[in-house]
Design goal:
heterodimer; A: alpha+beta; Heat Shock Protein 90; 3 helices; B: Transcription Regulator spoIIAA; 5 strands
């Protein structure tokens, strides 16, 4: 049962660090290459969302990420002190509509829902807290 | 991410190496649209060495495809890793984007 905790600054350049942390954690937990890709993608989409929507004051903030492997179930918590933002409220994209009407909005959360078993949001102590669960 | 562009008479091939995410998507978009604005309307994206794509990358591909459709052009993708292809399938992008197995097939269909 391994775990890892780390913090990222509110800057998209931190995506490389996010990928490095997640990949090394997955490797030490014996997670397959495909599942490592899926976990990286879900966290990337969430982190990008937080950076794009969360901070309006121009100050440096930190996003805290904690991953734990509990007997083959990966639990990931992402915490930020940005404006209240619940990504699970995003509308489901219309995947069947005509090509010309296709929009990119909502695709990120659609991918997260596809790759993770569960995603939960709560607002706690003026922070956004997201919990992802995936059987590995 | 490294992007190598190879120009041919009738089309250009973009070979992507690394990660196409919200950090690298803007540079990719710039290169793609520079090429389109310079008059090349038939493009191939070779994903053989692309390890990773997020919705930010899909957004650029959707935008380029829409732009090329208006100009009677075409964008063809090829040589995808299976887990990269799955992102296109989950997103429903495989219903309107030509995805070929090999670069040779992409050259034939572009």
């Amino acid at each position: 049962m391994g775990s890892i905790s780390f913090a990222l600054k509110n800057n998209l350049t931190e995506l490389d660090a996010l990928c490095e942390h997640v990949t090394s954690f997955c490797k030490s937990s014996g997670v397959s290459k495909r599942q490592t890709f899926e976990i990286n993608l879900a966290l990337d989409e969430l982190f990008t969302n937080i950076i794009s929507h969360g901070f309006t004051d121009g100050n440096e903030h930190h996003v805290h990420i904690h991953c734990v492997d509990e007997d083959g179930v990966l639990k990931i918590t992402i915490e930020d002190d940005g404006v209240p933002f619940n990504p699970t409220d995003a509308p489901h994209p219309n995947l069947k509509c005509a090509f010309n009407d296709r929009e990119i909005g909502g695709l990120g959360i659609h991918l997260i829902r596809s790759y993770m078993d569960r995603i939960e949001y709560r607002r706690e102590n003026r922070k956004n807290v997201l919990t992802l669960t995936k059987t590995i | 991410m490294d992007i190598t562009e190879t120009k041919h008479d009738q089309y250009s091939v973009f070979k992507l190496n690394g990660r196409l995410d919200s950090n690298t998507a803007m540079g990719f978009e710039q290169k793609l649209f520079d090429c389109i604005e310079n008059g090349t309307q038939r493009l191939i994206l070779d994903f053989e060495e692309l390890d990773y794509i997020s919705s930010a990358g899909l957004r650029v591909i959707l935008k380029a495809t829409k732009s090329l459709k208006g100009a009677d052009g075409k964008l063809v993708l090829c040589e995808m890793q299976d887990y990269v292809k799955e992102v296109f399938e989950i997103s429903g992008f495989d219903s309107f984007l030509p995805i070929e197995a090999t670069l040779d097939d992409a050259v034939k269909s572009v």
